[in-house]
Specification:
Helix content is 65%, strand content 0%. With 454 residues, it is mainly α.
Length: 454
């Protein structure tokens, strides 16, 4: 017993390792299944990589505990088994510190978007690096002072200092939670925020108890083995409880645990409960469309807009029409419902306005910056100028070619058939299937990679 308590390889160690391995597998499945099952396109913006970094940080935390506390029995002492590599750097800045820093970065974004009603002033990766600096500084100080013994244990003073830094970041989470608690989120962001606070607080308590048991009485082998077992098993449970999607990817969160009897959401407008926009009345569905009518008026008819969107997609130039369609949904949200308007505005900006967005529209730099630097994401005229520029482009390019295309002929033919027999609408079948928009990217196979917002 005394030998395995110091060198590792106790039977209880392997039980704890099994629990840690199981938690790693479940964590990876939880992160990837929504993309595999629901075929959600993966973006490369902060909404994706912040979640990916949380997964990596969780794995780092588990690996560092395994290596630092000698769960595995090695015959020789190698340089890569250094206590300062695993117990200081990987467990601190690259483990628990990185995990909490990602969550604080996400809450920082929520605060600016839903409370300040504007995009964050700092890019997410810059903010993440800034709040990670205290962890890096503490790790550097420990590396220089070298207070760890051959079992990776440190004195009481250093334990207080390390756990104080853990507690400081939990306090930061609580402060941000208090700042956004009044926001009526649509995708359980506040619930997941409080779950993160409770989990991280509980983890600090468990770690303090385990470290005290482990380090104060190193002469008691059974106590060291028990505390080591408790530390890894509870960390495995807490890592799974801490991880969630919804703060960054609301539609992914809805899809990830969706049951068969729940409604399927393919677009942000559906997830937000916005009704389909556009006129679709019986008297208009049976009237012949006049090419001499202004394009602005024609696009209000949903049948025409679907046909025009299909034509634009066939020319690989459908971004402007898709943008117009989603702005119509944005305008249908009541002005007093600022939260839903902000959700939709953020989605449109990430998909169409931000530089390098999946379906970036061709608008002037001045108008693009006006939208990105807006002081009110719920403003009624947020996309007005951009829509005006794109309307002119559609008139000069797409509209001229559309009137002589097969798409317009098919539209007119179907209208005539319904005028003769309204029941033919179901028989003829509208095979128009414009690209559906997801929260962060489109289904266009030629899409550009998504880049993060300011």
């Amino acid at each position: 017993m005394a030998a395995c308590s110091s060198k590792g390889g106790c039977p209880s160690d392997y039980v704890a390792l099994s629990a840690a391995l199981l938690s790693m597998i479940l964590l990876l499945l939880k992160a990837t299944l929504p993309y595999m099952i629901h075929k959600i396109p993966r973006s490369k913006g902060s909404s994706f990589w912040l979640v990916a970094i949380q997964v990596i940080a969780s794995l780092n935390l588990l690996f560092s505990i395994v290596m630092a506390l000698n769960f595995l029995k090695f015959r020789k002492r190698h340089w890569w088994r250094s206590c300062y590599l695993w117990a200081v750097w990987i467990e601190g800045p690259l483990g628990f510190g990185l995990l909490l820093s990602c969550r604080i970065t996400q809450i920082f974004q929520l605060y600016y978007i839903f409370v300040k009603r504007r995009l964050p002033p700092l890019r997410s990766y810059i903010f993440l690096l800034l709040i990670l600096l205290p962890w890096i500084a503490l790790a550097a100080v420990i590396q220089i002072k070298k207070p760890l013994n051959d079992r990776c244990h440190m004195g009481t003073l250093w334990i207080i200092l390390v756990m104080g830094l853990h507690a400081l970041y939990v306090v930061a989470l609580i402060a941000f939670a208090g700042a956004v608690h009044h926001v009526e989120f649509r995708f359980h962001e506040l619930k997941d925020l409080w779950r993160g606070i409770l989990v991280s607080s509980a983890s600090i308590g468990i770690w303090v108890a385990a470290y005290v048991m482990n380090e104060v009485r190193e002469d008691i082998s059974s106590l060291e083995i028990a505390s080591r077992f408790l530390l890894l098993v509870m960390t495995s449970v807490l890592v799974l409880a801490f991880f969630s999607f919804s703060i960054s990817q609301p539609l992914v969160s809805v899809m990830s645990l969706r049951k068969k009897n729940q409604k399927e959401y393919k677009t942000m407008s559906q997830a937000l409960g916005i009704p389909d926009s556009g006129i679709l009345l019986q008297r208009e569905s049976t009237s012949i469309l006049d090419p001499n009518e202004p394009l602005e008026k024609l696009l209000l008819n949903r049948r025409f807009r679907q046909s025009f969107m299909e034509f634009a997609d066939s020319c690989l130039a459908g971004e402007s029409v898709h943008f117009y369609d989603e702005v119509q949904h944005f305008d249908k949200i009541p002005i007093q419902d600022s939260v839903r308007r902000i959700y939709m505005a953020r989605h449109i900006i990430e998909k169409y306005i931000a530089a390098g967005a999946p379906m970036e529209v061709n608008i002037s730099h001045r108008i693009r910056q006006e939208i990105l630097n807006t002081n009110d994401l719920s403003h009624t005229d947020l996309f007005k100028n951009a829509l005006g520029e794109l309307m002119q482009l559609m008139k000069l390019n797409l509209a001229r070619d559309y009137w002589s295309s097969m798409y317009f002929m098919k539209l007119q033919e179907d209208i005539r058939m319904r005028a003769v027999d309204p029941e033919m609408e179901h028989a003829s079948g509208w095979n128009f299937s414009p690209r559906l928009s997801s929260v962060h990217c489109s289904d266009d196979p030629f899409q550009n990679e998504h880049t993060e917002l300011r």
